[in-house]
């Protein structure tokens, strides 16, 4: 039926035409598809006709097919026609039940909800049982192992007689038993222990269901978008599809939009405040971006988004289900990542071009270093030193003044022969003034 839809000559039709139609017959074969008639004419050398009259004839045959084909009940005939119509329509629309991305959207949403509920239950269980045996939470860090251990043992007094070797290693088992003997926890009733055990059962069941759901999501992603899964992983690919609404809607987005999917709030806030826009959204959680250093995360996320956009379009619109294209593009991104990292290492270690630049000829000239001490003529001395110098200068001035007075007295005595008193000097001055007058 699919060959007839595409206008190809199938093997069964070829055999029937060879048996039923005589080679020497000069009759024309009525066909509903002109393309199929051309193929029959080329391969079997039969003259075919396609016209509005033939179309009306085919419609009459379809309406009277129950009377023409005997031996089949009408209910089976209707079911057969309906199944054939559905399969042909599905083929025309390129619709496959394996390509339904609604399952991925529901699965990833349920997985996120399970993670939140599981985290809430585990925190409640640890806090609840921590009143009875607080040391157990520090010894056992794995949440699922903690719940299994609590469910199997119950009261902390049962740890000494219980065998938990199938859950815990020998070293940790010994530490737990030793801590149970000297525990500082309070005593709880048997009813409280039973409620805690029921909560542990819920945690274990949800954990097992989450593992099963993750495997289902992984298989479904490999069936619907194998190249996208190879590029960014199952979880990131599923979140991209869920955020866009469908795989076809995601294929319509450009690479820049794929890069920023999930960071719309930050993008519009940056545009409003005129700041730098974000470099990545959901694609930040891809393994290739995670293993890159902080400096190169923007470059790798941009290249990864460009290659991811190509793989999304190939998965959404292509008929091939292989993941070769995704593997090739991932290899290109990994090569670019190694190149960027090696470039950074070269700059740090001084190898390659940087080392060649360092070995260039440089003229050796004597470099004179400027001495700032010659700028000021005042010696830099502490304040205490300056105060001492000022005091010494004052004493020197006083001594010089005394010496000068003593010398003047000696001169006056040498000239007059006798020491002259102050009153006599005044009288002499008065006499000289009278004589001048």
UniProtKB/TrEMBL annotation:
> Source organism's superkingdom?
Eukaryota
Q: Name one GO biological process term.
A: ribosome biogenesis
Taxonomy, top ranks, is: Eukaryota, Metazoa, Chordata, Craniata, Vertebrata
Q: What is this protein called?
A: Nucleolar protein 58
One Pfam family name is Nop
Identify the stretch(es) annotated as Disordered: 406-437
Q: Where in the cell is it found?
A: Nucleus, Nucleolus
Protein family membership: Belongs to the NOP5/NOP56 family.
């Amino acid at each position: 039926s699919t060959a007839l839809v595409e206008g190809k000559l199938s093997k069964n039709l070829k055999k029937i035409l060879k048996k039923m139609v005589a080679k020497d017959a000069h009759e024309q074969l009525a066909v509903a598809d002109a393309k199929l008639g051309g193929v029959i004419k080329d391969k079997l050398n039969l003259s075919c006709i396609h016209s509005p009259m033939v179309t009306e004839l085919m419609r009459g045959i379809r309406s009277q097919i129950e009377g023409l084909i005997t031996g089949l009940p009408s209910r089976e005939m209707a079911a057969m026609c309906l199944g054939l119509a559905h399969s042909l329509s599905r083929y025309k629309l390129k619709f496959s039940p394996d390509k339904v991305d609604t399952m991925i959207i529901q699965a990833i949403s349920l997985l996120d909800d399970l993670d939140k509920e599981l985290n809430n239950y585990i925190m409640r269980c640890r806090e609840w049982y921590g009143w009875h045996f607080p040391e157990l939470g520090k010894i056992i860090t794995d949440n699922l192992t903690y719940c299994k251990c609590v469910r199997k043992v119950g009261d902390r007094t049962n740890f000494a007689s219980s065998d938990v070797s199938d859950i815990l290693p020998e070293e940790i088992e010994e530490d737990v038993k030793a801590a149970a003997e000297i525990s500082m926890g309070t005593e709880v009733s048997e009813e409280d222990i039973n409620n805690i055990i029921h909560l542990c059962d819920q945690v274990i069941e949800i954990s097992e269901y989450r593992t099963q759901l993750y495997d289902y999501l992984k298989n479904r992603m490999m069936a619907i978008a194998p190249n996208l899964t190879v590029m960014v992983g199952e979880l990131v690919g599923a979140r991209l599809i869920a955020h866009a609404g469908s795989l076809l809607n995601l294929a319509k987005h450009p690479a820049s939009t794929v890069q920023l999917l999930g960071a719309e709030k930050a993008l519009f806030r940056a545009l409003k405040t005129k700041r730098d826009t974000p470099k990545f959204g959901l694609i930040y959680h891809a393994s290739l971006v995670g293993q890159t250093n902080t400096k190169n995360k923007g470059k790798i996320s941009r290249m990864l988004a460009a290659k991811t956009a190509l793989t999304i379009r190939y998965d959404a619109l292509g008929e091939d289900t292989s993941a070769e294209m995704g593997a090739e593009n991932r290899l290109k991104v990994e090569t670019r990542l190694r190149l960027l990292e090696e470039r950074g290492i070269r700059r740090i270690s001084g190898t390659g071009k940087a080392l060649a630049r360092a070995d260039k000829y440089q003229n050796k000239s004597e470099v004179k270093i400027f001495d700032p001490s010659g700028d000021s003529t005042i010696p830099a001395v502490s304040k205490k030193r300056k105060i001492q110098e000022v005091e010494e200068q004052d004493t020197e001035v006083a001594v010089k003044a005394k010496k000068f007075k003593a010398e003047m007295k000696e001169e006056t005595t040498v000239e007059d022969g006798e020491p002259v008193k102050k009153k006599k000097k005044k009288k002499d001055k008065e006499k000289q003034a009278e004589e001048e007058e």
